[in-house]
Structures are given as C-alpha cells and as structure tokens.
Specification:
This protein is of the alpha/beta class and 569 residues long. The protein has two domains: 275 residues, 3-Layer(aba) Sandwich (Aminopeptidase); 221 residues, Glucose Oxidase, domain 1. The protein contains 13 helices and 18 strands. The chain has an eight-stranded mixed beta sheet, with helices on both faces. It has an eight-stranded mixed beta sheet with strand order 3-2-11-5-8-9-10-4. A two-stranded antiparallel ribbon has the order 6-7. α1 packs across α13. The radius of gyration is 24 Å and the shape is globular. It starts with 29 loop residues before the first helix and ends in a 39-residue tail after the last helix.
Length: 569
C-alpha cells in the first residue's frame, strides 16, 4: 500500500444459477496462497521495486501464470509497459499550426499557447478544424453541441465546462456540473464520432487567464517541479519519509508523476489546451467573436458549433523515459453477449520498494505479496469454474503502486479496456495480517449497491467487516478508478509494525483468514459480474466536487494551482 499517495433488500439479483455462497475454492486455500507469497516475497525478487530486475522477474512469472490459465491478453500483450518517471515535453518538436488553404500559416509553440494534456497520447494529428461549442452531449437536458456537425477526420476545438456554469439557476444543475462536463467524457464523445484530435480552451468572459491551461503539469513550464524536493522535505513527516524507502528526489519525482496522472483520459487521440490567441484565430476565420457566442449560448441555453476553413496540424512528442514499469493484464471473457463488453477489473499491485540504503531487501510479503497471491488464486478459481461470469473479468497485477498509483493510472490513461465500460473495480492490498479476522471494506459508498454486495458475500466466512477506514482510501489502486467514476471496493487488513520494513516476511501472514478474505473478494467479483444491471456510481466520498469554480479534491498533496489552470477532472 502506497505511503505517498497518501440496502441489501434492494440489491439486484444475480442471474439464475449463481453460485451458492457456501462455495470454497481450492486455489484460494491457505496452503496455495502461502506458496505464492513465499515466492513473491523471496530474496530472489529483490523487493520488486518498479522498473528493477526483481519486478521484471515477478511480472514475467505472473504473465506465465495468466498464460497457463488461458487468460486472454489485451491488444499489445499481457505486459503493459508504462513510464515510471515524470514525462518531459520535447518543446522543440511540439507545436500547433493553423492554416487556411495556401495562405499564411500561424505557428503556436508549446507553452503559453499550446499545452498537450499529460493524460493523452503524445502523437501527431492533422485535419480540418471544427468548433464544437462546449463539446457537451446531454440528451436528458435536450442539449447537443454536436448537432449537425460531422466530426469524422476533424480536429475539434471545444470550451471547458458547460453553458451557464456560473448561474445557480442554470438550465442544467446550477453550479454543479454535469458528469458529461468532465473532459474525459467530452474527449470520449469526440473520439466516438471520429475526431482525430481535441483542442480545449477556457471560454471568454469569465475573468480567466488567456494562456493555455495545464502548463503546471509539465516540468518544462512548472515552477512547482523544482520545488518538490524542498516541499517534501519540509512538509512530510520524517518517519513517513523513511517508510517509503525512497530518497527525497525519488519521492519528488513520484509526486510530480501524481500531478501528471490526475486526469487520465483513456484517449487514443491527442488532446491539448490552447490559449485565447488560438481561439481568436479560429473565430476570426469564421467571421465570429467568441465572447458573443458565449453570451448567446448562456442566454439561449442552446449550443451551436460551426465548421471553419482552417486546417490544424498538431505535433506532440515527449522525451524517452528509460525506467519502465509493467502492469500484467489478463482477460476472462464473459458468457453473456449483452454484457461481455462490460468489465469488472480485479486488481492487486505486485511491486514493492526494493532495498534500503544498507542493502537489506524489503520483501513485501503482506505489501503486497498477499493481494497478488489472492489475485492469482481468484483467476485460477474462475478458470476452473464451468460457469463463466456474464461480464468480462480483467485481472490486473499493477506495478508502480508504491510510486504513487502510477500503474493503475496508466492502465486507465492507456485505455486497455474502455473506461466507460468498466462496471466495477475490486482491489486487494495487504490482506494477510488481519487481527481477530477483521477486514476493511473501503469504497463501498462509491455505489448504492456495493455495501450490500459485500455484506451478502461475507455470509458464513466469520469475518468482521469494517467500513470506516477512509484514511486508506487514496493509498491504493482503486483510487484512480473512483476518480474516473467507477464503483470500487478495496479489501485491506490495515498497517502493522512490519509495514514498509525488511521484516514484512512471508512467515508472519495469517493464511487462513487471508483465504476467507480471498473468498469474500472472489464472491464479490462474481456477484458484480453477474448483476443484471451494472452498479451505479455515486460520489459518496465527496472527492470529485464537480462544482464550477471549486477545486475537486485530488490526492496530490503539493498541487497549488488556480481552478482555471487545473487539468480537468
């Protein structure tokens, strides 16, 4: 578990023939789990630090288990590499060009006028430029910025937020923004309609700065980047620093990666913020004025986009990152044609923190050899079950958790499976050191159905369920899924004196209770996969706070950025 990242009756019934709750699973028995933890927490794997040899060996071992079980790899294979260091922008290459026919070309360089989104692909794109208003598709409010527009092959310019966002009496929901207002939702809608890239700007007339938002998330433009080390040194408790087993420089890099990963878009197309200067050029090409457009839409509540005569050419490149982590991903296809394109993600991180300065190996038996062993046992139990679940299961052994939930964030950012099709996420992190058979079930307020699922699945297991340990909420891999609007539950047995110490060894785990927790988690996954209707997300922890002008509560500790400059949640 990461240090830095610091209604039962109303429950929809599973499909007929769902497994009885008294089922037991050989792959989740204590002896089976013990064998896997002994290997994961052996000196051979050198503490499994992200990007290091031991993590690579462990990742290949998990891959071989997935392959032997017959789990299906996602496109690109079982191993999903990701940069385990902050991304740097190649500013000499990165730029935006706008041109009209054979006329003069306007060049906008990276920085004040053109800032790529850190959660979107670094790639080139070219196409006719189209303005799509706020990029908002809200049929329940009879509002469609895309009406009459053909986005196929186009570069789309759109405004952030929504019309009348400052008006408490807006036609939508006052100052509380619609879920479709999230940039990820807008980009997803543009991508679905065939757009090749998205440009995003602040609407004029709100008293906001005219430069492109989001520059703070790139080291090349961020004053915060060089301040991270002294900030961490001054603000983080020294005992907590020691427990990370990372240097202050490494922790500064991890904290900045957290900022870069705050808004994983799950996009396959480039996305960038642009300045007022770019907006002026686009509206002028169509003989329009953007401030008039904003006033008209605020007054009428009806959006109207338009084609332009401009062609947009984006060139975006980041510098190579040598240090790579790797998630391991395997799919078990659902049996129901109507639901198999929906996913339940089952996760546990397999990385730990390597060696300390004295050369001692921090084996990470509980953190998180325990959760990884349960993940593998769950995968084996589903494969052995003749009845497949209705929805597809996505088993993910995450790396980079100790670096700030990097692997989970990159899983979402790289759109391994479509984010909007993820029905739920179940996470296991540190499930081997229970006291009196207690287990934290964290995140159940993310859906009205989730607590009832857990209560029902715990029957007969003699476990004490604790739902109150919210202090751990942002410290493991379910957190990025919650911020992406996915219902989650996170099973954990809390910290102990051996947490982030060389003494976290395999012989100290309670494998019998771990088996019961694994059975609980396995049942929960099965029930979530078989529900007639996917569980509904709710912001039960008030983390997203989608209210215009108010910052959402993110897990990055050192981010002090004005609302209008923040990357969109």
């Amino acid at each position: 578990m990461s240090v830095l990242a610091g209604l039962l009756l109303a429950l929809p019934a599973p499909q007929d023939g769902a497994e009885p709750l008294s089922s037991t699973y050989p792959a989740l028995q204590a002896a089976h789990l013990r064998r896997d933890v002994q290997y994961l927490a052996s000196d051979l794997l050198e503490g499994r630090e992200t990007g290091e040899r031991g993590e690579q060996v462990a990742g290949r071992w998990i891959e071989s288990r997935f392959r032997r079980l017959g789990l299906e790899p996602p496109p690109g294979g079982y191993l999903q590499p990701f940069p385990a260091a902050p991304l740097h922008l190649d500013t000499a290459y990165t730029r935006l060009r706008l041109s009209a026919g054979a006329g003069a070309e306007d060049l906008f360089e990276a920085g004040a006028d053109f800032v790529p989104h850190t959660g979107a692909p670094a790639a080139d794109a070219e196409g006719p430029l189209l303005f799509a208003g706020y990029g908002l598709f809200a049929p329940e409010h009879e509002y469609d910025d895309f009406a009459g527009l053909d986005l196929n092959g186009k570069v789309v310019l759109l405004f952030r937020w929504e019309p009348q966002a400052q008006d408490p009496q807006s036609r939508f929901d006052g100052r509380r923004l619609l879920s479709q207002t999230r940039l990820a939702a807008k980009v997803r809608e543009c991508e679905r309609r065939g757009a090749v890239a998205v440009l995003v700007a602040n609407p004029r007339g709100l008293g906001l700065r005219g430069d492109a938002p989001g520059a703070f998330a790139w080291p090349e433009f961020s004053p915060l980047y060089n301040q991270m080390e002294p900030l961490i040194q001054a603000q983080v408790d020294q005992i907590a620093l020691q427990r990370t087993n990372f240097t202050v420089a490494e922790q500064a890099a991890q904290a900045f990666m957290g900022i870069q990963l705050l808004s994983p878009l799950g996009s396959a197309i480039p996305v960038a913020y642009v300045s007022q200067k770019v907006v002026d050029r686009v509206f002028a090409s169509a003989g329009r004025r953007d401030e008039e457009w904003v006033r008209e839409v605020d007054a009428s509540g009806v959006g109207e986009g338009f084609e332009t005569l401009l062609t947009a050419r984006l060139a975006i490149r980041t510098a190579p990152v040598e240090r790579q982590g790797r998630n391991v991903v395997g799919l078990w296809r659902g049996s129901d044609a109507a639901h198999s394109s929906e996913y339940v993600v089952v996760g546990a991180h397999y990385d730990h923190v390597g060696r300390n300065p004295a050369g001692e190996i921090w084996n990470g038996a509980d953190d998180n050899g325990s959760g990884t062993a349960v993940l593998l046992g769950m995968a084996e139990s589903f494969v052995a079950d003749p009845k497949r679940p209705r929805r597809t299961l996505v088993f993910v052994a995450f790396s980079g958790e100790e670096e700030g939930l990097v692997g989970a964030s990159r899983f979402l950012a790289q759109n391994v499976v479509p984010e909007e099709r993820i029905a739920a996420m179940v996470n296991m992190d540190m499930v081997g050191r229970s006291i009196n058979r207690a287990v934290h079930a964290i995140g159940t307020s993310s859906s009205p159905a989730m607590r009832a699922v857990v209560e029902r699945c715990a029957k007969g297991l003699d476990l004490y369920l604790d739902y109150e340990s919210e202090e751990f909420f942002d410290r493991s891999d379910q957190a990025p899924f919650y911020y992406a609007g996915v219902p989650v539950v996170f099973f954990n047995t809390s910290e102990h004196p051996d947490y982030h110490r060389p003494t976290d060894t395999w012989d100290k785990l309670d494998y019998e209770t771990m088996s019961a927790i694994g059975t609980l988690a396995r049942r929960a996954v099965s029930m979530l996969a078989d529900l007639q209707k996917a569980p509904e997300f709710q912001d039960g922890y008030h983390r997203l706070a989608p209210v215009y002008g108010r910052d959402p509560e993110f897990r990055a500790s050192f981010q002090k950025v004005a609302y209008d400059q923040r990357v969109d949640y």
